[in-house]
Amino acid sequence: MGIIKNIEQADEMFQKGSLYVPMFGRDIEVWIENEAGIDYAERCAEHLTALSDEMIDTICEKSVIYYQFMLEEWGDFEEVSGGILDEIRNTIPEDAEGRDILKYITSPSLYILSPEADDIGYSIECGCVWEPEHGLEIIIRNNTVLYVGPAEGLGAWEDDDVYEIDY
User: Fold this and answer.
1) Which of 78, 134, 143, 145 stands 20 to 30 A from 163 (CA)?
2) Residue 71: enclosing H or E segment and its boundaries?
3) What is the pTM of this model?
4) How far apart (Å, rounded) are the C-alpha atoms in residues 63 and 78?
5) Could you tell me if 33 and 13 are in contact, meaning their C-beta atoms sit under 8 angstroms apart?
């Protein structure tokens, strides 16, 4: 028996289970594309649960940059933002940094799609108060954090230049 628990068929394309992820300090949903297979999903799950401190710190640093960028963006549109800036400020300190940002990431879900190489690749989609519409997406391939930013549904197998962010 693997580390992904309670695996069941969710729909015609995905199986769904749960996994305890130390970085988040809780169980998260795991969505496994049927074609990816359980063995590959277990490899991805093992990778995620054993991320190096350096990779976790990179994810946190990039999440903070995204948060700070969105604070500025919402500030530019404060008159029409419907109070989102007040909600953000009441939820997260403006000077949040490092791993503290993980406390403000909600509902993480791991997505494992069919591999396009003999590599490990997956994405994690999360909620975050600083971008309620698009949330936060983290994409990892092997030992590289490819992307941390708004959820775009990119997956781990795009060309590297697709993951570039302008902030």
Assistant:
1) 78
2) helix 53-76
3) 0.94
4) 22
5) yes
Residue with tokens 């990119």: 154
Q: Is the distance from CB of 142 to CB of 121 less than 8 angstroms?
A: yes
Which two structure tokens, joined as six digits, stand for 51?
């991320």
Backbone torsions φ then ψ of 85, nearest 5 degrees: -65, -40
Query: What is the model's pLDDT at position 81?
Result: 61
Q: Dmax over Cα atoms in the chain, in whole Å?
A: 54
Tokens of 80: 């029409």
Give 28's DSSP letter: E
**Residue pLDDT, tens place only, 9-62:** 999 999 999 999 999 999 999 999 999 999 999 999 999 999 999 999 999 999
Contact status, residue 63 vs residue 136, Cβ threshold 8 Å: yes
Concatenating the DSSP letter of every residue in 11-55 gives: SSSEEEEEEEETTTTEEEEEEEEGGG-HHHHHHHHHHHHT--HHH
Q: Could you read off the pLDDT of 86-105 as tens digits, one per residue?
A: 889 899 998 999 999 999 99
Amino acid at 98: G
